[in-house]
Amino acid sequence: MVANSAYLSVSSNVINGFRVFRYLLAIMYPSLLATAQKRIDLSRDNIRSGKFS
Question: Which of 22, 30, 44, 47 makes a 20 to 30 Å CA pair with 15?
């Protein structure tokens, strides 16, 4: 019985943490995508000009 309630509290904490994580991801995703795109463009330019960083 004690183990069962502990398991329930842990799983609810995990679910809440996942909700918060998904919420933060939804907020930060556009900026992360933009920085990733910038990095890809930078590496493409470096490859084109012969510089490998």
Answer: 30
